[in-house]
Specification:
The chain is an alpha+beta fold. The chain has one helix and three strands, in the order E-E-E-H. The mean pLDDT is about 95.
Amino acid sequence: MAYTFEVYKDNGGAFRFRFKASNGENMFASQGYKQKRSVVSAIESIKKNAPDAQVDDQT
């Protein structure tokens, strides 16, 4: 199983996504979006623009 973006509607009717690890565990989740195309756009942006994202450890 590969990493997966899971798109869903929450109880309030907002579109959201979860990023799931290959073992099925949730790694992170998005904010709510009013339109499904916005959540799809956010996923595409992450996939395109963040392959080399840095970690800012402020501990």
